[in-house]
Amino acid sequence: MMKDEGRLVIWPAYLDKDRTRAEGRIISKKSAVSKPEFDEILKAAANLGFSPVPETDKSYPRAWWEKSGRIMIDNIEAKNDSVRKIAAEIKKIRGN
């Protein structure tokens, strides 16, 4: 059994409005947030009940020189739907 089976990987780049799709953003700019912080993503995922597991020492493969960290969440729906919900929760937390 693989260590990450049943979990989704969420990288900050997936939610970042300032990145292009080629740089890793997977949701629309309208849904994305500007410069998402690791702690914001973690808090939003916890608020949504995704049981997040932080891994701060990881680097996003397309930006291997940056230690952005990643968050593992429960795989209960499509990745894009989960990322969109996390971005919306971050907007709510920020008060946007």
Automatic annotation (TrEMBL):
<comment type="function">
    <text>Involved in targeting and insertion of nascent membrane proteins into the cytoplasmic membrane. Binds directly to 7S RNA and mediates binding of the 54 kDa subunit of the SRP.</text>
</comment>
<keyword id="KW-0694">RNA-binding</keyword>
<dbReference type="Pfam" id="PF01922">
    <property type="entry name" value="SRP19"/>
</dbReference>
<comment type="similarity">
    <text>Belongs to the SRP19 family.</text>
</comment>
<dbReference type="InterPro" id="IPR036521">
    <property type="entry name" value="SRP19-like_sf"/>
</dbReference>
<keyword id="KW-0963">Cytoplasm</keyword>
<comment type="subunit">
    <text>Part of the signal recognition particle protein translocation system, which is composed of SRP and FtsY. Archaeal SRP consists of a 7S RNA molecule of 300 nucleotides and two protein subunits: SRP54 and SRP19.</text>
</comment>
<keyword id="KW-0733">Signal recognition particle</keyword>
<dbReference type="InterPro" id="IPR022938">
    <property type="entry name" value="SRP19_arc-type"/>
</dbReference>
<protein>
    <recommendedName>
        <fullName>Signal recognition particle 19 kDa protein</fullName>
    </recommendedName>
</protein>
<dbReference type="InterPro" id="IPR002778">
    <property type="entry name" value="Signal_recog_particle_SRP19"/>
</dbReference>
<keyword id="KW-0687">Ribonucleoprotein</keyword>
